[in-house]
Amino acid sequence: MTVEDSSFNQPAGDPTIWPLDPDVIFLNHGSFGSCPRPVLEFQQQIRARLERQPVQFFVRELEGLLDAARAALAEFIGADADGLVFVPNATAGVNAVLRSLRFERGDELLVTDHEYNACRNALDFAAAQWGARVTAVAVPFPVASADDIVTAVMERVTPRTRLALFDHVTSQTGLVLPIRRLAEELASRGVETLVDGAHAPGMVPLNLRKLGVTYYTGNCHKWLCAPKGAGFLVVHRDRQPLIRPLAISHGANSTRNDRSRFQIEFGWTGTCDPSAWLSVPEALRFVGSLIPGGWSEVMRRNRALALAGRKVLCDALHIASPCPEELIGSLASVPIADAVDDGAPASPLYADPLQDTLRLLHRIEVPIIPWPAPPKRLLRISAQLYNALPQYQLLAEALKVEQR
Description:
three-stranded antiparallel β-sheet; alpha/beta; about 40% helix; Aspartate Aminotransferase, domain 2
């Protein structure tokens, strides 16, 4: 598809299935996603079933329901169901791994300077607990190629490097990192890989059996469009005995032997609302049915629209594309003029005044991200089935007005 392709002039399918404010141009699916109405209705049916007979649901039914949901998700992402557990979100998955592992004083934990702040904080916390050291790799942005990313990372690996933490799709810069190449190179040096795949499921094709990482966590409530609070963690079979949930609960002293300790402990960490997890198969089914070609076409269409939207913005701002197309999924970030106020953001979820201006005056919701540090800024667009090319053109015109 090209920018001129008329199929981009309208959303794909019926936009009313998405419960978004019709008066707002929503170009920020990447932050929290949006769950289609029929999937939310499915979730509500699960909640009604739970409340009708809570003991029946939690004690006698939940484990089997979770097994079925795990199996459906595992098939979609190319993972073994026995190695997949549900968590509330990818940040919780990263924390579960980092809070379970032990390191020696002087060990090195590798991360890039594009890492999501919450997960970087978790890595710093774990390092401080054990006297390990965090090595931050500077990955350029703009960046010319995937080779540049791999080279930058591998140049910082030493004999003391034990673990590398990567975003699969970087939150701030929208880069799809070459995870398989990185994992293979690191494994050859005895380094484990923990991947924060918050954005990847539903954005890029996944086959975790072939990806070669030790630990992989992701969200289902972003690009898979499941209800909020649906995440997962996949752990290589050899490492499962080491990884414990953040909440130690009944499974810690269970005498069951019909499933792994990994599954027993994560399967029940205390009373919660499991309806988001149990709705994941319905989200997979429903979103995959929205356009001919199923999920492969959903991902292809969204990526093509993100690239087309990025071109519109780059042309309007008179800048070159900051990375090659091969590093883009359904997110795309472009640098914009420096902020006038270089103070820290008021919110950990970003609160640049320009973001508020675009929303209030132009009815456009799009994130303005302080990166790599204030006053430098990026504008990040998302592309989902409810988006269309004219929306990015309106954004480009609004930027011209607000930055002149």
